[in-house]
Design a protein that fits this description.
Elements: E1 3-11, E2 16-23, E3 27-31, H1 38-46, E4 53-58, E5 61-65, E6 70-71, E7 79-82, H2 94-100, H3 112-118, H4 134-146, E8 152-156, H5 164-181, E9 185-189, H6 192-198, E10 201-206, E11 209-215, H7 216-219, E12 220-222, E13 228-230
Parallel strand pairs: 3-9, 3-10, 7-8, 8-9
Antiparallel strand pairs: 1-2, 1-4, 4-5, 5-6, 10-11, 12-13
Helix pairs in contact: 2-4
Length: 234
């Protein structure tokens, strides 16, 4: 996977995203404080937001080019997006929500049976969203994204609303998904320990600007507690 942001600008309420970077790792983390612009960056990749300047390129496919007014529609980008709130349809069953994500033409198909098995959703298929726990909703949102057979998976703080036990359970599930499906992903968090377990490289965002980028061990240090912190420049 190669993702390029070429002179991309997106004005926000308090500052502007101003982005020039290239990602070439399969599991990439996006780190920063709340309000740093992490979700807005994902929205640009997914086509939910439009920049005012620049180009976004994924694997040599131009997704957005402001100079030529080119913009690939969100549905045609091959992006699986799991936003913080899941964005599930409350009036549909679990199975209907899952099947909504099925099918991208020309993609290597991830089957419904595979996803249901890996995410342990068999007993939930007929339930409505209103009858699910927070952890169960996260599994459904992840399953729907996987069933789109994406070329890139975006995960926006998937553990943020879960208690400690569910966080660890979901973390183990994500590790299994990584092993089973080998999908490139960008994983957003302001918790460094999550990125250390799930990503090989990380990009650090602060008020719309990239301030660090590189392998996990060069970006973070760990103390004896352990608590992961950004490494200080020497």
């Amino acid at each position: 996977m190669k993702l390029v942001f070429d002179d991309v600008v997106l004005p926000l309420s308090d500052f502007s995203l101003e982005l020039n970077f290239s990602l070439e790792e399969e599991t990439f983390g996006l780190f920063g404080r709340s309000g740093a612009g992490k979700t807005s960056l994902l929205d640009l990749i997914a086509g939910v937001r439009r920049p005012t300047r620049g180009r976004i390129i994924l694997d040599d496919i131009i997704l957005t080019d402001c100079a030529t007014q080119l913009r690939v529609p969100s549905r045609e980008r091959g992006i699986g997006y799991v936003p913080q709130e899941g964005a599930l349809f409350p009036h549909l069953s679990v199975e209907e929500n899952l099947r909504y994500g099925e099918g991208r033409k020309g993609a290597a198909v991830i089957s419904f049976e595979q996803v249901v098995s890996i995410l342990n959703l068999h007993t939930l298929l007929r339930r409505r969203m209103t009858h699910l726990s927070g952890g169960e909703k996260q599994r459904v949102a992840l399953g729907r994204a996987l069933l789109s057979s994406p070329r890139l998976l975006l995960l926006d703080e998937p553990l943020s609303s879960l208690d400690a036990a569910l966080r660890e359970e979901t973390m183990e599930l994500l590790e299994q998904v990584r092993t089973e499906f080998h999908l490139p992903w960008i994983y957003v968090s302001h918790a460094a320990w999550e990125l250390q377990r799930l990503c090989s490289e990380v990009l650090v965002l602060d008020r719309g600007h990239v301030i660090k980028q590189g392998p996990i061990e060069k970006i973070f240090s760990v103390s004896s507690e352990p608590v992961w912190r950004l490494r200080q420049e020497s």
